[in-house]
Amino acid sequence: MTTLVLTVVGDDRAGLVSAVAEIVQTHGGNWENSELAELAGAFAGIVEVSVAAERADALRAALEGLSATLAVTVHTGAPEGTASAPHSVTLDVVGNDRPGIVHDVSSALSARGVSIERMSTQTTDAAMAGGRLFEASITVVVGPDVEVDDLVADLERIAAEIQVDVMFAD
């Protein structure tokens, strides 16, 4: 089996997921993991699909047929068995929204050689204080050479500087 990672973007409308799923199904693919969302009137997502190696090129070509309604980019994923994570840590970030939060947190992670496996962010109206509230849930892959205590100390220092709360879960 070959793993393909699809990125999809287009103007939001009914039927986009169904159109992609139909092509995957028709070509014998298996829709495995995905994150899909409507953001500011646009539909965007990432989908992991497995398909028999001999059918991968036909699947790619069929997905190109969606170009009138959806931009689809196909990437070949890592071979099976090579994408295992040594250790994952999840952190939640919450605070008053301001520019630079994602930059500051992701820079601290990168400086320690930590890779972001999954990240979800949103801003909402802060009910009591007014203004906007920023929330993020970030799962990171920590290699064996990374001292988690040092990473936590870095993130706690940054959290104090930018006035957000960072909570960790192993």
Q: What does this molecule look like?
A:
It is built from four helices and eight strands, in the order βαββαββαββαβ. With 170 residues, it is an alpha+beta fold. A four-stranded antiparallel beta sheet has the order 2-3-1-4, with helices on one face. It has a four-stranded antiparallel beta sheet with strand order 6-7-5-8, covered by helices on one side. The protein starts with a strand and ends with a strand. The protein has helices at residues 16-26, 56-64, 101-111, 148-162; strands at residues 2-11, 30-39, 42-51, 71-76, 88-96, 115-125, 132-141, 164-169. The protein folds into two domains: 2-76, 2-Layer Sandwich (Alpha-Beta Plaits), CATH 3.30.70; 88-169, ACT domain (Alpha-Beta Plaits, 2-Layer Sandwich), CATH 3.30.70. The mean pLDDT is 91. This is Glycine cleavage system regulatory protein. It holds the Pfam family ACT.
Any key phrases for this structure?
4 helices, 4-stranded antiparallel sheet, 2 domains, Alpha-Beta Plaits, 170 residues, 27% helix, alpha+beta
Sheet of most strands:
4 strands, antiparallel
Strands, count: 8
The general outline is: flat
CATH superfamily of the largest domain: ACT domain
Count, helices: 4
- Measured by DSSP, the beta-strand proportion falls in 35-45%
Please write the string of helix (H) and strand (E) elements. Answer: EHEEHEEHEEHE
The CATH level-2 architecture of the largest domain is identified as 2-Layer Sandwich
Q: What is CATH's topology name of the largest domain?
A: Alpha-Beta Plaits
From the alpha carbons, calculate the radius of gyration and give it in angstroms: 19 Å
Number of domains: 2
**Sheet with most strands: strand arrangement:** 2-3-1-4
Straight-line distance between termini: 32 Å
The parts where pLDDT drops under 50 for at least 5 residues are none
Summarize the amount of helix as a percent range.
25-40%
**Helical/strand content category:** alpha+beta
Overall pLDDT score: 91
CATH class categorisation of the largest domain: Alpha Beta
